[in-house]
Write a structure and sequence with these properties.
single chain, mainly alpha, Rna Polymerase Sigma Factor, Chain: A, Arc Repressor Mutant, subunit A, 8 helices, 0% strand, elongated, transcription regulation, RNA_pol_sigma70_r4_t2, RNA_pol_sigma_r3/r4-like, WH-like_DNA-bd_sf, sigma factor
Length: 174
């Protein structure tokens, strides 16, 4: 969080430190998803440019690495969409390396990973109740019997879990 405050205060030394620390990680993250060194290089550079341009509006509530990877993911998706559109309008549809299905697959995989991470970080009982309900398909009554709690308590755990997931997803989309 200290990095965020320093960058928001126009501290270029800290920005350079963050750049040095996360450049190769962002590059690897994008390269793994796209298998393109060109796109990985472009997205990495554009991500740090975006960070500097938007430094005054970045969140002090989230660590810099979380915000950087979120920006990189969004920049990657934007770039892939632009490439797909460019190929489409150039009429070279037989050689389209990036399609909407690729973009959708990347978005879905990233979203599932984020959600799974959030679920694993929930309080133990909330996580267990949520997983039994959503992943194993047990009813509220069945879960209540399993843990000797009321169905209303099960409902509250699930409601809190969903709210936690929604809030985190909303904060990422900003």
């Amino acid at each position: 969080m200290e990095y965020v405050k320093a960058i928001k205060a126009d501290n270029q030394k800290i920005f350079n430190l963050v750049y040095d620390k996360y450049h190769s990680q962002i590059y690897g993250f994008i390269l793994q998803r796209t298998q393109s060194t060109y796109i990985a290089e472009e997205v990495t550079q554009l991500t740090f440019i975006k960070l500097w341009k938007q430094r005054h509006i970045i969140s002090e509530q989230l660590a810099i690495n979380i915000q950087l990877f979120g920006m990189a993911r969004q920049v990657m998706i934007d770039l892939l969409r632009k490439e797909a559109t460019r190929f489409k309008y150039e009429g070279d549809s037989a050689v389209t390396p990036f399609t909407d299905s690729l973009i959708d697959a990347i978005e879905s995989k990233d979203l599932l990973q984020l959600m799974e991470h959030d679920i694993q970080n929930m309080p133990k009982m909330r996580r267990l109740v949520f997983e039994l309900s959503r992943k194993q398909g047990l009813s509220h009554k069945e879960i209540a019997q399993l843990f000797s709690i009321s169905p209303k308590t099960v409902e509250q755990h699930i409601g809190k879990a969903l709210l936690q997931l929604k809030q985190h997803l909303y904060s990422i989309m900003l």
